[in-house]
Amino acid sequence: MRYVSLAGTALAAMMIGGCASIPPDYSSAGVKALTSYAVTNNETPYSQCLEELNRFQVEKKPVFSVGEIADKTGQWDPDNNGHALSQGASEMVMSAFYKTGKAHLVERLDLRIPLAEVKLAEQKRLSRSSQQYGKLPASDFIVVGALTELNYNIVSGGARVFVQGIGGGARSVIINVAMDLRVIDARNFAIRYVTSLQKQILGYEVEANVFKFFGNTLVELDAGAIRNEPLQLGVRSVAEMAVYQIMTDFLGLPKTDHCKLVETDHQASQLSKLEKPKGEQS
Q1: What is the structure's pLDDT at 3?
Q2: What is the pTM of this model?
């Protein structure tokens, strides 16, 4: 009996076709690069909440400096040979503050080039003198923190059914990511505000596998789809909501109803269950 896999046949055909498409000689212009989707803005559902703060009038915009928002989850992605979470959380927080239009930002995260500029000016090696720099603006508040949680497979579920080699299945999984930020008063280093937020992220997969005999040949057909909410988009969403809290709960800017934090009592209800006698627990 011969066993033929359509997937293997298709792969072989693609390899042959790919080899056939290689030009016999190399043009000085090179090959045309593949392009697909256009460049777009990078927003989350919470970006509109930050942008709505632009319409409020303030007497004076506070000066914020954003320090390191470190990845302290310790999670490593072996499949991609890299960190599981974005290492650019500090930049995400800076972008979030900028979207509000209600904060001045000063650079404190990477001062290598600015300090090198000043040093070169002092050495009279720049077209600008050191006196032209003047006094640099001081921070009112410093924002630092960390990515503190990445919990895999909080809830998962699915089903697979096959009858005489024909069937399919679907499964879903939920993970979560958390961020803790703190606002430090730059005048006395007192911690003035703390926010701790988490977001759950959903992914699901649908598959259909068909196996059927045609004469003495086994034909295997695999079809399916995987759709996941981007993990790093979840990180950016938490960062933007944290900045929204800083601007509203801490600085007192008005909130809008659709931008309020979704609060749960899952853990509090668990304490209530623990307080009940065993016979009363549901």
Answers
A1: 43
A2: 0.80
